């Protein structure tokens, strides 16, 4: 039973650089949601150099998406764990294809309440991603313009050297956007038809995007 907006299960949709992970983290920190990020799970596999990780590493470096079979299994296991503990979640980076939508709907142990679509202009995406730097050791994220580390090219948390992800280079970003437009945009019409899509202007700064999402979810749950 949904009592407040914190009892919802959400999907975040948006192009690379729309801020899905950043905004999801605001809801994790402030509102006790659990973020389920396929990207983070896969990067952990890459860091550990597992068989899955090595396969995913090559695919992600080209700007392509990892196969549905691999991602579906990861998501199913994670959502089973969360729902058995009565935890509410945000799916970040999943589903990306209509086949993944169908798989998600086939899971009889959970349901999605709302889909948050983060709309952002292409020029802003390029500015955000080409200036993004990450810590390969602890996973912290920085931005060379809006969120600089205290010491140049050094993580504030663990002092490790920062890197640019291969898929944050301009030519790969454009490939990722092309893949998004072909594979993921059809999902928007699907969720529009279901009546549970919420569109957000994600050209704004992260705090404003977070507050807009939170206020819309509060209004929707209060009116139920």
UniProtKB/TrEMBL annotation:
Keywords: ATP-binding, Cytoplasm, Kinase, Metal-binding, Nucleotide biosynthesis, Nucleotide-binding, Transferase, Zinc
Span list, region NMP: 37-66
Subcellular location(s) per record: Cytoplasm
EC number: 2.7.4.3
Biological or metabolic pathway of the protein: Purine metabolism; AMP biosynthesis via salvage pathway; AMP from ADP: step 1/1
LID as annotated region, ranges: 131-168
InterPro entries reported in the protein's UniProt record: Adenyl_kin_sub, Adenylat/UMP-CMP_kin, Adenylat_kinase_CS, Adenylate_kinase_lid-dom, P-loop_NTPase
Domain Adenylate kinase active site lid, chain residue ranges per copy: 132-167
One annotated GO biological process: AMP salvage
Main location group: cytoplasm
CDD domains xrefs: ADK
Amino acids binding ATP: 17-22, 132, 141-142, 204
Keyword match Transferase: yes
Keyword DNA-binding: no
Entry binding sites for AMP: 38, 43, 64-66, 93-96, 100, 165, 176
Source organism, top-level taxon: Bacteria
Subunit structure: Monomer.
Family: Belongs to the adenylate kinase family.
Domain comment, as recorded: Consists of three domains, a large central CORE domain and two small peripheral domains, NMPbind and LID, which undergo movements during catalysis. The LID domain closes over the site of phosphoryl transfer upon ATP binding. Assembling and dissambling the active center during each catalytic cycle provides an effective means to prevent ATP hydrolysis. Some bacteria have evolved a zinc-coordinating structure that stabilizes the LID domain.
Name recorded for this polypeptide: Adenylate kinase
Gene encoding the protein: adk
């Amino acid at each position: 039973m949904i009592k407040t907006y914190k009892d919802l299960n959400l999907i975040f949709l948006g192009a690379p650089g729309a801020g899905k992970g950043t905004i999801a983290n605001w809801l994790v920190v402030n509102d006790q949601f659990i973020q389920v990020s396929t990207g983070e799970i896969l990067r952990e596999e890459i860091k550990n150099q597992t068989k899955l990780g090595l396969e995913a590493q090559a695919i992600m470096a080209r700007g392509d998406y990892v196969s549905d079979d691999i991602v579906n299994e990861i998501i199913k296991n994670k959502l089973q764990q969360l729902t058995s503990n009565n935890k509410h979640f945000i799916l970040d980076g999943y589903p990306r294809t209509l086949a993944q939508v169908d798989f998600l709907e086939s899971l009889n142990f959970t349901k999605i309440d709302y889909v948050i679509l983060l709309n952002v202009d292409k020029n802003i995406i390029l500015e955000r991603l080409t200036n993004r730097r990450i810590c390969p050791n602890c996973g912290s994220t920085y931005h060379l313009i809006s969120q600089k580390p205290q010491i140049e090219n050094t993580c504030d948390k663990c002092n490790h050297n920062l890197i640019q992800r291969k898929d944050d280079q301009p030519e790969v970003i454009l490939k990722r956007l092309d893949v998004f437009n072909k594979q993921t945009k059809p999902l928007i019409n699907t969720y529009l038809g279901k009546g549970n899509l919420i569109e957000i202007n994600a050209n704004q700064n992260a705090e404003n995007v977070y507050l807009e999402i939170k206020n819309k979810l509060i209004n929707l749950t209060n009116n139920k």
